TrEMBL record:
It comes from Paenibacillus xylanivorans. Its main location: membrane. It is a multi-pass membrane protein. Residues 252-466 form the Histidine kinase domain. This is histidine kinase. Signal peptide: none annotated. Residues 192-244 form the HAMP domain.
Amino acid sequence: MIKKGITRQIVLHYFIVVFLALLLVEFVFMLAVQRYYYESIYNTISTHISNSKDFFEPLARESNTEDGKNLSKLLVNLALDNTELEILDLNSHVLASSTAFESDRAVLQTSDIQQALNGGMGRWVGRQPGTGEQVMAVSHKFDLGGENTYVIRYLTSLENVNSKLLFMGMLAIVVGVGVLAIVLIISIGMANSIVRPINNITAVSAQMARGRLDVRVKGNYKHELGELASTLNFMAHEIVRSNQIKDDFISSISHELRTPLTSIKGWSETLDSGGYDPDETRIGMGIISKETERLIGLVEEMLDFSKLQQNQMKLVKGTVSIREIVQETMLNVWAKAEQKQIHLKLESDENRAFNVFGDGNRLKQVFLNLVDNAIKFSHENSWIFLTVKEEEGQILASVQDTGIGISEEHLIKVRDRFFQVNHQNGGTGLGLAITQELVELHDGTITMQSELGTGTTVTVSLPALPEYETVEDPILQNDETEVTLDPKLTQAESDQKKF
């Protein structure tokens, strides 16, 4: 007995479908064979009747013999092997039979006789009264001239034919049982070929659920099962990698938090002890302030990432000039760039603002992160080029450095959360992940091109606003967007460019 499950369902479905198909085919086959045999018998008798009628009726009219002699001639000349010949009058009484001469017999009332009296070739299949034997009767009217008109009726047994049909039916049943047995074996094998891999995958996934992420689905499975196994293995690999990244992040952030806290604690205790001149006190307070800002930056970065992950980041959008944001970013990082003697250069059309619809503070955060990374990984006395331009309705802002670059292996992972190319450089590994999320919230994209030892180019693409349009934050305006159009435009042009 097949236990409940997919195996039973597959086997039952295949078995039922094939069984019903075989039942239909065998029924149609037996019906066709029976019809063929019965039609063959009928055609043989009807052909014999037609030929005999064409030959015998003219001769009988010319001879004009007595009724008794006509019956004898009919019995002799119309006889057919393996059939009983009966001659009936127009009142359906049997006048003579090839088995014996009979009269005053009961009236026959089968349908073939009535059809013959109506001028057609009558046929009837049924059981012979008295014997119960199944027979076929074929009747036709013979006109021998004058009052000598008779119904010629041939009667043949169907027992031999039915025996052959029964044998063929039993043979068909045996073949059907054999086919069903083969289908059962094949369907069980097919079901097992599907269920066995599923059981294997289920067992492996159960081990993964219990924390054993080192196990993998083994086996060269094909089609959807192969894809499922590959996906499960990839999932386990990604979980292991994510756990490793998480562990590295915890280690890194612990170090990042411990270093400023140690400095703050040390200088706090030192200052608390007193006895230091004002210069040392000022230096200590500066270090405490700097390390506090660093801690605040780390905490804010993690809070921003948490908000982005939970879709709780709120943007205050309006018309923002990307060129102005990039200029402000350069001013903010100028002191840090000077420490490494790095030169910043902006390449942009001074007569254009390059407006976008977005949150100015968040977009500034994006470019601060990108330029800060460029400074961090650039060599001393190098250049960083910032470019702002418009192409095909998109504002493209690029940050290009000539620093250490990123390898192809790390380039595809560098925007993953918690990922750091070099853990010794500090940070949480969330900067680029947050940057990408913020750009996507502005319906933009961020692309990176880098070559190890040559430098990196990061390009932010944002939908551009036409120079003559300014848009206020729709949230603050109750979903009403304010649009200012260039007064030089005609009324028709203004109507076309409103949105």
